[in-house]
Amino acid sequence: MGVPTDCTLVGIQMERRRILWKMSLDFLYDLSVCTVNLKRRSSFHSERNARHGPVFTQEPSDSVFPLRSEDNKVNNHLCLCVRLYRWKVDGRYIDMDLNYNLVEGNLLINHPHATHHGGVYQCIATNVFGTIVSREAKVQFAYLQNFSRKSRNTVSVREGQAVVLLCGPPPHNGGTTLLQQKKVFLLQDTRRFVSQRTGNLYIAKVEASDVGNYTCVVRNMMTNATAYSSPTPVELRRDGEHAPLLAPLIEVQFPESLHVTKGTSVKLECFALGNPVPSITWRRTDGNPLPGKIKINHSNGVLEIPYFRPEDAGVYECVAENSRGKNVAKGQLTLKDVHMAIEANLQWECKASGKPKPVYRWLKNGEPLVPEDRILVEGGRLAVPRINLLDSGMYQCLAENEHGAIYASAELKVVASSPDFSSSPVKKSMLIQRGGEVIMECRPHASPRASISWRRGGEFLKDSTRRTIMGDGTLRISNISESDGGRYTCVARNPFGTSSSTGTLVVKEPTKITVPPLSVDATVGESIVLPCEVSGDSSLDPTFKWFFNGKLIDFNRQDHFEMIGGSAGDLMVRNIQLKHSGKYVCMVHTVVDSVSAAAHLIVRGPPGAPEGLIVGEITDSTAQLSWESGPDNHSPVTTYSIQARTPFSIGWQAVRTVPDSVPGQMFHATVIDLNPWVDYEFRVVASNNVGVGEPSMQSKQIRTKAAVPEVAPGNVSGGGGRRGELVIQWEPIPEELQSGEEFGYVVAFRPLGTSTWKQTVLASPDASRYTFRNDSVPPLSQFEVKVGVYNNKGEGPSSHVVVVYSAEEEPSEPPSRVWTRTLSASEIEVYWEPITQTASSWKIIGYEVLCWEEGMQESDAEMVRVTDTAALLSGLKGSTVYLISVRAQNSAGAGPSSPAVNVTTKKPPPSQPPGNIEWNLTNSKIFLSWEHVKAMGNESEVTGYKVLYRQNWLGKTSVVETNRTSMALQVPSGEDYLIEIKALSDGGDGSSSGPIRIPKMSSKRELFLSFTIHRIHFWYNRFKVSRVPSTKFCLITMNPTGTMCLLMSVFVFFRS
């Protein structure tokens, strides 16, 4: 039958269009140790201390060693562990010599040689319970041949179909692999799976990203040799057909029956193909949860149970499920060792696979099992009826063919014991409601099986209409009454003895729901209470639970639900929403019974969104719509309204329809008054007595047909321009009203009182102005004007006729009597007489004042436009002669300039800031003093000083002027102040001293602060002073004990 060929895929690799997957081939790869466990017995009920026959916890396995080319030897030690007793090689018992040694029960082969030590090894173990032989283990040398170089066929598959890629490893011995980091391996997921049993790559649903070349990589860890298969190309079929949706098909599954040795690990594989990609879940058929120790890999395709225990035995199911259906694979895991009662019937079955088909032999205690009257051996089946104590022992099934043999072992223990209730006594106290039913179990441990009888008090019970003793010894009593209360004893007998166990039955009054919840209707946003009140036995404490549509309500996670009512279990549903419609069940639990009552809540709300909106026939101003009704949410739809959206509208707007009001039973309407040649989207909104529902999905965008324009330009006007011009203006037509392509304007005009129109066509839809030029047109002539529209469908309407004046002529005279006044070194005021109306053909709209320095050209002048007869010129240079001229302006342009007037600005203000500033702060007064500023020869003389102060940097500034070099400021206490001082002159304000910060006074103690700054020179005035002399600071604190003054000298440095 050959040796097991389990293929373990270690990784899948994809790099651009080359994809690699690796396999671990568990062929002949290691000669592992053989371990035998012996245990002592104290009680047959205690598994931990029970004695039993020898059990191989680890048997010798086939071993392969790397062959060194120079000496054909292996320089490693080989250890085969055995407790007792003997070893064979090629069927011969081994004599311990220089090459073989037993070390603490281990068989040690020193310096194994390919020629002398290759062969088949077997371990024989014996104790007082029997003898077993291990499986045969071959010692061979490792090799790995190459894959066939024959190219592999291209796999062509549609996107969405499934595919299986075969590896087909080459001949090898000792093959295994480790992950290589040479390339990035494709990871398994719920869509892609590699079977450790078959080695194949399974893709449940092919995607475009799966296209590429797939290569299977095998590496021999013994020789470090690596073999690469030829690439298997995967490509997508481009026939335009789509892969159908398919229910799951489980392609990789575990055996239907699997015998597992206690303490070992077992792995179950399960993977399904399908579209959509199936999800894989695992469960036990007995309803018990999966043990916490179970490991499930990230693709859910492999379930591993480590350290297999008796409680892990059972039937396991793999469920593959998608939207098209589900598929189930199941298999039973059983523990190999068996404890059976005397006189029971034993039936074992052993299955193995191989080519050629294997034959079976059975061994008992290491010796062939010969069929006889009681023992039936038929292939892999063993049957022993009515077993006795002599049948106990170690049994082995041997399956073999010309390629080798494998063994499966199990221990049979035949047990004989009297009934024992120590581990499963009758329940001590049973509470049951009157009228109910009770089942009392009686399950003693006994071998052979015990006969069961029941008694109440001293009276043995017999079957009646209400009492039944079932075949497994269980007592069932129905329609319980108070008289059934009392002590019940189960009596168990077998040939080895008698035992009993007693429990008490207590009868309670049943629990009843006296005020059940009632079905109710509610509207979205309301709150309701569903009552649930009970009556029952006063000694029982009822527990209330509410279920909504079959799911338990978790009041800690539900904002809308609240349990109220104190001793009752009333349910309040707050701010009801449509999702709260459904079935509500109040369930009341006590230790003896459970009762429930149900009610339905119907929530009425605004209608759901209409569905299936379709736009039918379209004209230049109408569109036919049809739709299907959505959910009415328990309140019939009364009306439908239509909304539309265009690229020019702000959001969705209601539109007119025929009929004007669409009733709830009608599912079509005609939208009217649409604009031609405009893109529209539509949606439908349903309403009922509760409110307005959600709108439907918008329709596909459609465009109405083109038509002749229907809207004429508005606000036609004109006037202005240059002499000989007629300027016509209007508001352009918005794009949504142009009604078609090739939109433009037709401008018509004629002199007032004439009959012939002059026309011009403007082909731009954005045009809003037209200018007609003719030097013969007199100024301010009256014209009748109208503006029309057109597009590729024809000419539309024209605007109303309006009268527009032609351009006027420029003023012909300059302003008279221009004079000036010098304000400072940088400002001059200019005045002039206004021009008379007779000097211009129309209204003067303003004046232009020209200013330029003496010696420059008038063309270089700065210009200031004003509407009054005075202007302020600022930003001028001090002690400079300027020339000033003025000219009038109307809509036609500017007239001639007046004769230039000379004016000289004053000398600049002093550049030196006030220095040696001192300040004293006491109570609410600030006393300031400073040195007088002396003007230089080219500066204006000082006429006074300006003191500016404010509470903070952003506060409002107050200004005080003085002609002295000191002053006192009255300020509120409790605030910081910033103070600046400037010199005043005819040339303007001089340089600032810079801000000086005065700290606020304390409100609890009088604080007298004196701060003197001598000859302050500020860096921003660009004086080259690098050191400012001493700054004095004196802080005087007055208190009842005296006065303390702290004087400090501070040097302040500035950088120029």
Automatic annotation (TrEMBL):
Pfam family, one: fn3
One CC-aspect GO term: side of membrane
Keyword Cell membrane on entry: yes
Main location: membrane
Region (Disordered): 891-916
SMART domains noted in UniProt: FN3, IG, IGc2
The protein, known as: Contactin-3
Top-rank taxon, per record: Eukaryota
Domain Fibronectin type-III: 609-707, 712-809, 814-908, 909-1006
Membrane-related topology note: Lipid-anchor; GPI-anchor
Keyword Cell membrane included in the entry's annotation: yes
Alphabetic keyword roster: Cell adhesion, Cell membrane, Disulfide bond, Glycoprotein, GPI-anchor, Immunoglobulin domain, Lipoprotein, Membrane, Repeat, Signal
Compartment list: Cell membrane
Domain Ig-like: 145-235, 248-334, 350-413, 419-506, 510-596
UniProt GO BP: axon guidance; brain development
Its job: Contactins mediate cell surface interactions during nervous system development. Has some neurite outgrowth-promoting activity.
UniProt family annotation: Belongs to the immunoglobulin superfamily. Contactin family.
Subunit structure: Interacts with PTPRG.
GO molecular function: cell-cell adhesion mediator activity
